[in-house]
Amino acid sequence: MFKQAIARQVLHNNLSDHKPMKKADSLVNAYLDTFQLKGASMAIVKDGQLVYAKGYGYADKEAGVKVHPGHKFRIASVSKLVTAVAVMKLIDEKKLALNDTVFGKAGILNDSLYTTAVDQRMYQITVRQLLNHTAGWCRKCVGDPIFRPLEVARKLGIKSPPSLNDVTRFVFARKLWYAPGSHFGYSNYGYAILGEVVAKIAGVSYEKYVQGLLAKLDIKGMRLSKNLLKDRAPLEVKYYEGKDVPKARSVYNPRQKVLRMYGGNNLDALAGAGAWIASPVDLMKLVTAIDGFDNVPDILSKDIVHQMMTPDDEEGKQVLGWRWCSPRGCWRTGSLGGSDAVVTTLKNGISWAFVTNTSIDSRSGVREIYGVMAQVLKATKSQLPDVNYFGLKPPQK
Protein backbone atom coordinates (compact mmCIF):
# COMPACT_ATOMS: atom_id res chain seq x y z
CA MET A 1 0.00 0.00 0.00
CA PHE A 2 2.86 2.39 0.85
CA LYS A 3 4.58 1.79 -2.51
CA GLN A 4 1.27 2.27 -4.36
CA ALA A 5 0.82 5.62 -2.58
CA ILE A 6 4.32 6.69 -3.63
CA ALA A 7 3.64 5.72 -7.24
CA ARG A 8 0.83 8.26 -7.43
CA GLN A 9 2.95 11.16 -6.21
CA VAL A 10 5.17 13.76 -7.79
CA LEU A 11 8.81 13.77 -6.76
CA HIS A 12 8.62 16.79 -4.47
CA ASN A 13 11.12 17.59 -1.73
CA ASN A 14 8.69 16.46 0.98
CA LEU A 15 8.90 12.82 -0.15
CA SER A 16 12.40 12.77 1.32
CA ASP A 17 11.32 14.19 4.67
CA HIS A 18 11.97 10.94 6.51
CA LYS A 19 12.68 11.40 10.20
CA PRO A 20 16.03 9.52 10.09
CA MET A 21 17.15 11.84 7.25
CA LYS A 22 16.68 15.06 9.24
CA LYS A 23 20.38 14.93 10.06
CA ALA A 24 21.12 15.11 6.32
CA ASP A 25 18.97 18.22 6.02
CA SER A 26 20.79 19.83 8.92
CA LEU A 27 24.22 19.05 7.46
CA VAL A 28 23.40 20.31 3.96
CA ASN A 29 21.72 23.49 5.22
CA ALA A 30 24.74 24.20 7.43
CA TYR A 31 26.99 23.70 4.38
CA LEU A 32 24.94 26.21 2.37
CA ASP A 33 25.05 28.72 5.22
CA THR A 34 28.78 28.31 5.82
CA PHE A 35 29.75 28.97 2.21
CA GLN A 36 26.83 31.28 1.38
CA LEU A 37 25.59 29.04 -1.42
CA LYS A 38 22.25 29.96 -2.97
CA GLY A 39 21.15 26.42 -3.73
CA ALA A 40 22.05 22.74 -4.02
CA SER A 41 20.46 19.41 -4.88
CA MET A 42 21.24 15.86 -3.81
CA ALA A 43 20.19 12.33 -4.72
CA ILE A 44 21.18 9.04 -3.09
CA VAL A 45 20.75 5.52 -4.48
CA LYS A 46 21.04 2.34 -2.45
CA ASP A 47 21.13 -1.03 -4.21
CA GLY A 48 19.60 0.43 -7.35
CA GLN A 49 16.79 2.28 -5.56
CA LEU A 50 16.47 6.06 -5.44
CA VAL A 51 15.99 6.52 -1.71
CA TYR A 52 16.56 10.26 -1.43
CA ALA A 53 16.13 13.23 -3.75
CA LYS A 54 15.90 16.74 -2.43
CA GLY A 55 16.69 20.34 -3.30
CA TYR A 56 17.97 22.97 -0.88
CA GLY A 57 17.96 26.74 -1.01
CA TYR A 58 17.07 28.70 -4.13
CA ALA A 59 17.05 27.89 -7.82
CA ASP A 60 16.46 31.61 -8.42
CA LYS A 61 16.99 33.75 -5.33
CA GLU A 62 15.61 36.95 -6.89
CA ALA A 63 12.39 35.26 -8.03
CA GLY A 64 12.00 33.31 -4.76
CA VAL A 65 12.06 29.92 -6.56
CA LYS A 66 13.27 27.10 -4.31
CA VAL A 67 15.25 24.10 -5.58
CA HIS A 68 13.32 20.87 -6.10
CA PRO A 69 14.45 17.49 -7.56
CA GLY A 70 13.47 18.49 -11.10
CA HIS A 71 15.78 21.49 -11.36
CA LYS A 72 18.71 21.18 -13.78
CA PHE A 73 22.23 22.39 -12.96
CA ARG A 74 25.34 22.79 -15.05
CA ILE A 75 27.33 19.68 -14.21
CA ALA A 76 30.64 20.95 -15.66
CA SER A 77 33.14 18.11 -16.18
CA VAL A 78 30.67 15.47 -15.03
CA SER A 79 29.65 15.98 -18.68
CA LYS A 80 32.73 13.95 -19.61
CA LEU A 81 31.10 10.87 -18.12
CA VAL A 82 28.05 11.50 -20.32
CA THR A 83 30.28 11.82 -23.39
CA ALA A 84 32.22 8.69 -22.49
CA VAL A 85 29.00 6.68 -22.21
CA ALA A 86 28.02 7.83 -25.71
CA VAL A 87 31.43 6.83 -27.09
CA MET A 88 31.39 3.47 -25.31
CA LYS A 89 27.87 2.74 -26.56
CA LEU A 90 29.13 3.14 -30.13
CA ILE A 91 32.04 0.85 -29.28
CA ASP A 92 29.61 -1.67 -27.77
CA GLU A 93 27.72 -1.61 -31.07
CA LYS A 94 30.96 -2.23 -33.03
CA LYS A 95 30.67 1.12 -34.80
CA LEU A 96 33.85 2.40 -33.22
CA ALA A 97 36.97 1.00 -31.52
CA LEU A 98 39.15 2.34 -28.72
CA ASN A 99 42.26 2.06 -30.89
CA ASP A 100 40.78 3.92 -33.86
CA THR A 101 42.84 6.99 -34.75
CA VAL A 102 40.91 10.24 -34.48
CA PHE A 103 42.54 12.80 -36.80
CA GLY A 104 43.91 12.86 -40.34
CA LYS A 105 43.16 11.19 -43.65
CA ALA A 106 43.14 7.74 -42.03
CA GLY A 107 41.27 8.91 -38.95
CA ILE A 108 37.61 9.27 -37.97
CA LEU A 109 37.72 13.04 -38.41
CA ASN A 110 39.29 13.23 -41.85
CA ASP A 111 38.07 16.39 -43.54
CA SER A 112 40.45 19.26 -44.32
CA LEU A 113 40.14 20.85 -40.87
CA TYR A 114 41.83 17.82 -39.30
CA THR A 115 44.62 17.24 -41.83
CA THR A 116 46.76 20.33 -41.21
CA ALA A 117 48.60 19.41 -37.99
CA VAL A 118 52.06 20.90 -37.52
CA ASP A 119 52.93 17.96 -35.27
CA GLN A 120 52.50 14.70 -37.21
CA ARG A 121 52.09 12.81 -33.94
CA MET A 122 48.59 14.29 -33.83
CA TYR A 123 47.58 11.63 -36.34
CA GLN A 124 48.53 8.88 -33.88
CA ILE A 125 45.97 9.97 -31.24
CA THR A 126 43.36 7.30 -30.53
CA VAL A 127 39.86 7.32 -29.06
CA ARG A 128 41.23 5.65 -25.91
CA GLN A 129 43.82 8.39 -25.45
CA LEU A 130 41.17 11.10 -25.66
CA LEU A 131 39.06 9.24 -23.13
CA ASN A 132 41.85 8.69 -20.60
CA HIS A 133 43.60 12.06 -21.11
CA THR A 134 46.84 10.69 -22.59
CA ALA A 135 46.63 12.27 -26.05
CA GLY A 136 49.72 14.40 -25.48
CA TRP A 137 48.44 17.83 -24.42
CA CYS A 138 49.51 19.47 -21.16
CA ARG A 139 47.06 21.88 -19.55
CA LYS A 140 49.46 22.69 -16.72
CA CYS A 141 52.26 23.45 -19.17
CA VAL A 142 50.56 25.73 -21.69
CA GLY A 143 46.98 26.23 -20.45
CA ASP A 144 43.69 24.91 -21.76
CA PRO A 145 42.69 26.29 -25.18
CA ILE A 146 38.99 25.80 -24.48
CA PHE A 147 39.30 28.27 -21.58
CA ARG A 148 41.46 30.76 -23.52
CA PRO A 149 38.89 32.00 -26.05
CA LEU A 150 40.19 35.56 -26.22
CA GLU A 151 43.75 34.40 -26.87
CA VAL A 152 42.57 31.86 -29.47
CA ALA A 153 40.52 34.52 -31.26
CA ARG A 154 43.40 37.02 -31.19
CA LYS A 155 45.91 34.49 -32.55
CA LEU A 156 43.53 33.50 -35.35
CA GLY A 157 42.51 37.07 -36.11
CA ILE A 158 38.81 36.35 -35.62
CA LYS A 159 35.99 37.65 -33.48
CA SER A 160 35.51 36.02 -30.08
CA PRO A 161 34.13 33.63 -28.99
CA PRO A 162 35.85 31.06 -31.21
CA SER A 163 34.00 27.92 -32.23
CA LEU A 164 35.35 24.45 -31.51
CA ASN A 165 36.56 24.36 -35.12
CA ASP A 166 38.48 27.57 -34.45
CA VAL A 167 40.03 26.01 -31.34
CA THR A 168 41.05 23.03 -33.47
CA ARG A 169 42.85 25.35 -35.90
CA PHE A 170 44.66 26.88 -32.91
CA VAL A 171 45.61 23.46 -31.48
CA PHE A 172 46.73 22.02 -34.82
CA ALA A 173 49.14 24.94 -35.31
CA ARG A 174 51.05 23.87 -32.19
CA LYS A 175 53.07 20.86 -31.14
CA LEU A 176 51.98 18.23 -28.67
CA TRP A 177 53.73 18.39 -25.30
CA TYR A 178 54.07 14.60 -25.04
CA ALA A 179 53.99 11.62 -27.37
CA PRO A 180 50.42 10.24 -27.50
CA GLY A 181 49.90 7.57 -24.86
CA SER A 182 52.98 8.44 -22.82
CA HIS A 183 51.68 10.84 -20.14
CA PHE A 184 48.45 11.83 -18.42
CA GLY A 185 47.42 15.39 -19.32
CA TYR A 186 43.87 16.43 -18.49
CA SER A 187 42.25 17.87 -21.62
CA ASN A 188 38.89 19.55 -22.08
CA TYR A 189 39.67 19.92 -25.78
CA GLY A 190 40.03 16.14 -26.09
CA TYR A 191 36.54 15.55 -24.73
CA ALA A 192 35.03 18.30 -26.86
CA ILE A 193 36.54 16.48 -29.85
CA LEU A 194 34.99 13.21 -28.66
CA GLY A 195 31.65 14.94 -29.18
CA GLU A 196 32.64 15.46 -32.82
CA VAL A 197 33.60 11.78 -33.03
CA VAL A 198 30.16 10.77 -31.74
CA ALA A 199 28.45 13.03 -34.27
CA LYS A 200 30.54 11.68 -37.16
CA ILE A 201 29.89 8.01 -36.33
CA ALA A 202 26.23 8.43 -35.33
CA GLY A 203 25.33 10.65 -38.28
CA VAL A 204 23.42 13.12 -36.09
CA SER A 205 24.52 15.96 -33.83
CA TYR A 206 26.34 15.00 -30.64
CA GLU A 207 23.60 16.52 -28.48
CA LYS A 208 20.81 14.71 -30.36
CA TYR A 209 22.57 11.35 -30.15
CA VAL A 210 23.16 11.67 -26.42
CA GLN A 211 19.58 12.76 -25.78
CA GLY A 212 18.34 9.70 -27.66
CA LEU A 213 20.53 7.50 -25.50
CA LEU A 214 19.34 9.21 -22.31
CA ALA A 215 15.69 8.83 -23.35
CA LYS A 216 16.13 5.05 -23.07
CA LEU A 217 16.86 5.64 -19.38
CA ASP A 218 13.81 7.90 -18.92
CA ILE A 219 16.10 10.93 -18.63
CA LYS A 220 14.39 13.98 -20.07
CA GLY A 221 15.38 17.63 -20.27
CA MET A 222 19.15 17.20 -20.25
CA ARG A 223 20.76 19.51 -22.80
CA LEU A 224 23.84 21.57 -23.42
CA SER A 225 23.81 24.83 -21.49
CA LYS A 226 24.34 28.21 -23.14
CA ASN A 227 26.62 31.09 -22.22
CA LEU A 228 24.11 33.72 -21.13
CA LEU A 229 21.33 34.04 -18.57
CA LYS A 230 18.79 34.96 -21.27
CA ASP A 231 19.31 31.52 -22.85
CA ARG A 232 18.63 29.55 -19.66
CA ALA A 233 16.78 26.27 -20.35
CA PRO A 234 13.44 25.25 -18.80
CA LEU A 235 13.97 24.21 -15.16
CA GLU A 236 17.62 25.30 -15.30
CA VAL A 237 18.69 27.08 -12.14
CA LYS A 238 20.26 30.51 -11.99
CA TYR A 239 23.99 30.59 -11.18
CA TYR A 240 25.86 32.67 -8.63
CA GLU A 241 29.46 33.39 -7.64
CA GLY A 242 30.98 33.70 -4.20
CA LYS A 243 31.39 37.34 -3.26
CA ASP A 244 35.20 37.13 -3.33
CA VAL A 245 35.43 35.53 -6.79
CA PRO A 246 36.83 38.06 -9.28
CA LYS A 247 35.04 38.85 -12.51
CA ALA A 248 36.38 37.64 -15.86
CA ARG A 249 36.78 39.27 -19.22
CA SER A 250 33.76 38.65 -21.43
CA VAL A 251 34.25 36.18 -24.26
CA TYR A 252 32.23 38.60 -26.38
CA ASN A 253 34.03 41.80 -25.44
CA PRO A 254 37.50 41.70 -23.82
CA ARG A 255 37.04 45.23 -22.46
CA GLN A 256 34.02 44.17 -20.43
CA LYS A 257 34.23 42.36 -17.06
CA VAL A 258 31.47 39.85 -16.36
CA LEU A 259 30.60 37.07 -13.93
CA ARG A 260 32.28 33.90 -15.14
CA MET A 261 29.06 31.91 -15.39
CA TYR A 262 27.39 34.37 -17.76
CA GLY A 263 29.79 35.26 -20.53
CA GLY A 264 33.12 34.48 -18.90
CA ASN A 265 33.35 31.01 -20.46
CA ASN A 266 32.41 29.74 -23.91
CA LEU A 267 30.13 26.76 -23.31
CA ASP A 268 29.41 26.35 -27.01
CA ALA A 269 32.98 25.21 -27.61
CA LEU A 270 33.19 23.32 -24.30
CA ALA A 271 30.19 21.16 -25.29
CA GLY A 272 30.75 17.49 -24.37
CA ALA A 273 33.67 18.37 -22.12
CA GLY A 274 31.58 20.34 -19.66
CA ALA A 275 28.35 21.98 -20.86
CA TRP A 276 25.55 19.54 -19.96
CA ILE A 277 22.80 20.40 -17.49
CA ALA A 278 21.18 17.69 -15.37
CA SER A 279 19.49 17.04 -12.05
CA PRO A 280 21.04 14.66 -9.50
CA VAL A 281 18.15 12.28 -10.23
CA ASP A 282 19.13 12.31 -13.93
CA LEU A 283 22.70 11.52 -12.93
CA MET A 284 21.60 8.65 -10.71
CA LYS A 285 19.55 7.14 -13.55
CA LEU A 286 22.66 7.28 -15.72
CA VAL A 287 25.02 5.91 -13.08
CA THR A 288 22.78 2.96 -12.17
CA ALA A 289 22.80 2.05 -15.88
CA ILE A 290 26.63 1.88 -16.05
CA ASP A 291 27.64 0.64 -12.58
CA GLY A 292 27.88 -3.10 -13.24
CA PHE A 293 25.34 -4.06 -10.58
CA ASP A 294 22.51 -6.41 -11.53
CA ASN A 295 19.68 -4.64 -9.69
CA VAL A 296 19.17 -2.19 -12.60
CA PRO A 297 19.88 -3.27 -16.21
CA ASP A 298 22.96 -1.57 -17.63
CA ILE A 299 22.83 0.27 -20.94
CA LEU A 300 26.32 -1.06 -21.73
CA SER A 301 27.61 -4.63 -21.83
CA LYS A 302 29.43 -5.98 -18.79
CA ASP A 303 32.73 -5.95 -20.66
CA ILE A 304 32.35 -2.27 -21.61
CA VAL A 305 31.31 -1.33 -18.05
CA HIS A 306 34.37 -3.17 -16.74
CA GLN A 307 36.62 -1.29 -19.17
CA MET A 308 35.17 2.04 -18.04
CA MET A 309 35.75 1.27 -14.37
CA THR A 310 39.24 -0.25 -14.71
CA PRO A 311 42.10 2.29 -14.70
CA ASP A 312 44.93 2.06 -17.22
CA ASP A 313 47.39 3.20 -14.53
CA GLU A 314 48.19 2.37 -10.90
CA GLU A 315 47.01 5.77 -9.64
CA GLY A 316 43.48 5.25 -10.96
CA LYS A 317 43.46 8.48 -13.00
CA GLN A 318 43.61 7.04 -16.52
CA VAL A 319 40.02 5.88 -16.75
CA LEU A 320 37.41 6.17 -19.48
CA GLY A 321 35.00 8.94 -18.52
CA TRP A 322 35.33 8.74 -14.75
CA ARG A 323 37.78 11.06 -12.98
CA TRP A 324 39.29 8.20 -11.05
CA CYS A 325 38.41 4.67 -9.93
CA SER A 326 39.64 2.47 -7.08
CA PRO A 327 38.56 -0.80 -5.43
CA ARG A 328 36.04 1.32 -3.46
CA GLY A 329 34.26 2.73 -6.52
CA CYS A 330 34.39 5.49 -9.13
CA TRP A 331 34.06 9.28 -8.94
CA ARG A 332 33.46 12.09 -11.40
CA THR A 333 33.75 15.76 -10.47
CA GLY A 334 33.08 19.06 -12.19
CA SER A 335 33.64 22.75 -11.49
CA LEU A 336 32.66 25.73 -13.59
CA GLY A 337 31.92 29.36 -12.81
CA GLY A 338 28.67 29.24 -10.80
CA SER A 339 28.48 25.50 -10.25
CA ASP A 340 30.16 22.47 -8.70
CA ALA A 341 29.13 18.84 -9.13
CA VAL A 342 30.14 15.39 -7.91
CA VAL A 343 28.77 11.97 -8.80
CA THR A 344 30.00 8.68 -7.43
CA THR A 345 29.18 4.99 -7.40
CA LEU A 346 30.58 2.81 -4.63
CA LYS A 347 31.11 -0.94 -4.40
CA ASN A 348 28.96 -1.04 -1.25
CA GLY A 349 25.87 -0.35 -3.37
CA ILE A 350 25.53 3.35 -2.56
CA SER A 351 25.72 6.01 -5.26
CA TRP A 352 25.13 9.72 -4.92
CA ALA A 353 25.13 12.99 -6.82
CA PHE A 354 25.41 16.50 -5.42
CA VAL A 355 25.31 19.77 -7.37
CA THR A 356 25.33 23.45 -6.46
CA ASN A 357 24.42 26.65 -8.31
CA THR A 358 27.03 28.75 -6.51
CA SER A 359 30.78 28.30 -6.85
CA ILE A 360 33.20 29.01 -4.03
CA ASP A 361 36.42 28.97 -6.04
CA SER A 362 38.13 26.69 -8.53
CA ARG A 363 39.42 24.25 -5.89
CA SER A 364 37.30 24.33 -2.76
CA GLY A 365 33.82 23.57 -4.09
CA VAL A 366 34.28 19.91 -4.96
CA ARG A 367 36.35 19.24 -1.84
CA GLU A 368 33.63 20.68 0.38
CA ILE A 369 30.97 18.56 -1.35
CA TYR A 370 32.94 15.43 -0.51
CA GLY A 371 33.16 16.62 3.08
CA VAL A 372 29.46 17.23 3.55
CA MET A 373 28.49 13.98 1.81
CA ALA A 374 30.88 11.99 4.00
CA GLN A 375 29.06 13.41 7.00
CA VAL A 376 25.63 12.75 5.48
CA LEU A 377 26.39 9.11 4.71
CA LYS A 378 28.00 8.52 8.08
CA ALA A 379 24.94 9.92 9.83
CA THR A 380 22.30 8.18 7.69
CA LYS A 381 23.83 5.10 6.06
CA SER A 382 22.14 2.60 8.39
CA GLN A 383 18.87 4.51 8.26
CA LEU A 384 18.37 5.08 4.53
CA PRO A 385 14.68 4.40 3.84
CA ASP A 386 13.50 1.30 1.96
CA VAL A 387 11.73 3.18 -0.85
CA ASN A 388 12.33 3.70 -4.56
CA TYR A 389 11.47 7.03 -6.15
CA PHE A 390 12.72 6.11 -9.61
CA GLY A 391 9.80 6.43 -12.01
CA LEU A 392 8.22 9.39 -10.26
CA LYS A 393 7.96 12.56 -12.29
CA PRO A 394 9.68 15.61 -10.80
CA PRO A 395 7.86 18.96 -10.66
CA GLN A 396 7.72 20.72 -14.02
CA LYS A 397 7.79 24.31 -12.73
Describe the structure.
The chain is built from 14 helices and 14 strands. With 397 residues, it is an alpha+beta fold. The strands form four sheets. Strands 3-2-1-13-12-11-10 form a seven-stranded antiparallel sheet, sandwiched between helices. It has a three-stranded antiparallel sheet with strand order 4-9-5. A hairpin with a 2-residue loop joins β1 and β2. α2 (22-35) runs antiparallel to α14 and α3 (79-92) runs parallel beside α8 (188-202). It is globular and about 65 Å long. The two termini are 29 Å apart. The relative contact order is 0.20. The mean pLDDT is 94.
* Secondary structure tally: strands: 14
What integer is the average pLDDT? 94
Helix fraction, binned, reads: 25-40%
Structural class: alpha+beta
List key phrases describing it:
397 residues; globular; 7-stranded antiparallel beta sheet; 16% strand; alpha+beta; 3-stranded antiparallel beta sheet
Tell me the layout of helices and strands.
Elements: H1 2-7, H2 22-35, E1 39-46, E2 49-60, E3 65-66, E4 73-74, H3 79-92, H4 127-131, H5 139-142, H6 149-156, H7 164-172, H8 188-202, H9 206-215, E5 223-224, E6 240-241, E7 248-249, E8 257-258, H10 260-264, H11 267-270, E9 276-278, H12 280-288, H13 302-309, E10 324-326, E11 329-336, E12 339-346, E13 350-356, E14 358-359, H14 364-380
Parallel strand pairs: 6-14
Antiparallel strand pairs: 1-2, 1-13, 2-3, 4-9, 5-9, 7-8, 10-11, 11-12, 12-13
